[in-house]
Design goal:
Length: about 550
């Protein structure tokens, strides 16, 4: 056994830093039968007094959570393996070892889920389910120490001198003396796809050109943040991410434009100089500059957005309008979500939310001009919800951190559909909003769109009037409301998701019509719905469950 004191740097925690984050504090698990439909999760009810807030309180109580009285030790693999029981459970995540014994009852995925990693390196397991939860903050007080031998293989670094030379060139023949050697982190199959960049300048502008080598580039695949001297540009290439991260030579006023030559995959980022001085170099590369790696390996990046309005949708649901910083270029693709981050009682808490439109446009003849400066979120405030209560207390003008988008839905799934069915429960309606608009506006082969919207009571139905108006306006669209707990005289459908209900409402308009069924709501709703649809004979390609 090897135990000695080590010093540990605190985890990066705020601002524009990239973070090592892990997914989901909801603690859903992936039932085997649904794996073929993609990841979906179940929520394990916790005992009273075991909420996230209770956990935060416990961690602040001064209790010795590791049993080491605050000492940090270096842990060998043999030592780690010994702590593999519920009453003595250590887990290694990214080289750091945590005593998760006191956390067992607070883990929303349940003790069994946590025990899967007991006494081992749980990094992969964590990344599969929890990538976005900031475990460093959540488990800070449980930190035992560092692994003596780093258990995870470092990503392969490839530095090609000739490539570097090509990439370090600068506009107008000026020597790139200020740039450091650059690194790329590649997946084996991605080698040929590695983007490259170049830059040039005029008196007032800096133009960075990125050759993505990807056809059908579009504005949603470019995420740009530029603040004063710091530039971060991320380009999404399938499941990979290419990053430019530079401390610019000089300050810039703003980004002027992101131009995309879709067919050749060229992206131009145009920045306005603050002073019209000639730049000798583009700037100093930051840690992840010029890297190309799996999106899932890239930490979530957050920028602070201003709350500009908050309007009531129902008795407990509000539409939050957030303003992106002026120098941010970010479009959240259809079906994707963002993560919001707040510090609650000293702990960073992260939750996912799916942007919607400000309203349901009734005119589906033309693609609407998207307002790219704002992000609209329709959020249900739970009376005992940790995150939503804090959100509800935000004042107009306050700032909140918003991440880059994530999600597995692809527009192409709906582009060839003839019949689209949207099964939504409660705020599971949110991914359907943009999807509905896109389908009715841009999918020419679409014959029918049916929204089957499950809610508890009439008062819970989100955008009921708008949906009804839309159904009147567009004959392809139909909406069906189904209530599980109707309180007034409700003449409509009642009940929960069931096989009979689905066989009644989900029907192809023609025998062989191409169908897509999207489903989103509480985890058990989604899980059951997917299973019923499978039993009814729908294939994996025909069903898309929205999950984290
Ligand atoms: P918590 O403190 O976690 O829980 C408090 C109480 O609220 C619990 O006791 C429980 O009864 C109830 N509760 C909490 N979470 C859930 C849940 N997921 N399902 C059912 N009951 C729950 N929510 C939105 O309002 N709008 C969205 O656009 C949205 N998008 C999402 C996208 C994804 C990919 C996922 C996975 C979830 C999304 N959610 C959305 C849910 C959101 O992330 C939070 O789970 C929710 O806001 C509750 O957070 P909280 O901290 O306030 O509640
Ligand atoms: P809710 O509790 O008000 O329930 C709405 C309806 O869902 C109910 O009327 C019922 O028909 C159905 N339902 C609820 N619990 C069920 C169960 N155990 N089994 C079967 N059906 C059930 O819903 P809410 O509070 O608005 O919650 C919405 C859910 O949607 C949250 O869990 C949220 O995390 C999830 N969501 C997920 C995404 C995503 O992309 N994954 C996006 C938005 C919301």
């Amino acid at each position: 056994m090897c135990r000695r004191r080590v010093s540990l740097r605190p985890a990066p925690s705020s601002g524009r830093q990239q973070e090592a984050v892990v997914r989901a504090h909801h603690g859903y698990y992936i039932p085997d039968k649904l794996e073929e439909f993609g990841p979906t999760f179940l929520w394990v009810p916790l005992k009273p007094g075991r909420s996230l807030m209770d956990w935060i309180r416990l961690t602040k109580s001064g209790k010795d959570m590791t049993g080491l009285k605050g000492r940090l030790i270096e842990v060998t693999e043999d030592e780690l393996a010994k702590h593999n029981k519920k009453e003595d459970c250590w887990i290694c995540i990214r080289g750091f070892v945590y005593n998760v014994t006191p956390y067992m009852e607070y883990h929303p995925g349940g003790e069994d889920e946590l025990m899967k990693a007991a006494g081992t390196d749980g990094t992969d397991l964590f990344d599969q389910v929890h990538r976005w939860v900031n475990y460093e903050s959540m488990l800070k007080e449980c930190l035992v120490g560092r692994m003596a031998v780093k258990p995870i293989a470092a990503p392969k670094e490839i530095t090609s001198v000739s490539e570097e030379k090509k990439q370090l060139n600068v506009g107008h023949g000026v020597c790139p003396s200020g740039m450091l050697p650059e690194k790329k982190i590649l997946g084996a199959s991605s080698k040929d796809l590695t983007p490259s960049y170049d830059w040039f300048q005029t008196d007032s502008l800096i133009t960075i050109v990125i050759y993505t080598k990807q056809k059908d580039m579009n504005a949603e695949l470019v995420i740009l943040d530029c603040e004063d001297k710091l530039l971060r540009g991320e380009i999404i290439v399938d499941d990979y991410s290419y990053l430019l991260e530079v401390d610019l030579d000089r300050a810039v006023q703003e980004y002027v434009a992101v131009n995309i030559a879709e067919k050749v995959g060229k992206v131009e980022i145009i920045l306005k100089k603050k002073d019209n001085v000639h730049w000798k170099i583009l700037g100093q590369p930051l840690e992840n500059h010029n890297t190309f790696m799996k999106r899932t390996d890239r930490g979530l990046f957050y920028r602070k957005c201003k709350l500009v309005s908050k309007t009531e949708v129902t008795h407990d649901t509000r539409l939050f309008c957030l303003l992106l910083p002026e120098s941010t270029h970010l479009r959240v693709p259809i079906g994707q979500h963002v993560y919001l981050k707040q510090i609650i009682a000293g702990t960073e808490v992260v939750k996912p939310y799916t942007p919607v439109l400000p309203f349901l446009p009734l005119d589906f003849q033309e693609p609407s001009c998207h307002d790219s400066a704002h992000i609209y979120l329709m959020i249900k405030i739970y009376s005992c919800g940790l995150f939503t209560q804090a959100l509800d207390h935000l004042q107009i003008g306050d700032y909140i951190s918003v991440s880059n988008p994530e999600g597995s839905f692809k527009k192409s799934q709906v582009q060839t559909s003839e019949d689209l069915f949207l099964l939504a429960a409660g705020t599971g309606f949110t991914p359907m909003v943009k999807l509905l608009h896109f389908a009715l506006t841009e999918v020419s082969c679409l014959r029918t769109v049916k929204l089957i919207f499950f809610n508890r009571t009439e008062d819970d139905i989100l955008w009921r009037n708008q949906l009804q108006q839309l159904a009147l306006k567009d004959e392809r669209f139909e909406v069906q409301f189904i209530l599980s707990q109707p309180i007034r005289d409700w003449v409509g459908k009642q009940g929960m998701i069931s096989s009979s209900l689905l066989s009644e409402f989900v029907k192809r308009s023609r025998k062989d019509s191409k169908v897509l069924i999207c489903i989103c709501g509480p985890a058990p709703f989604t899980e059951q719905g997917v299973q019923y649809l499978k039993d009814l004979g729908y294939s994996q390609e025909e069903v898309h469950p929205f999950t984290a």
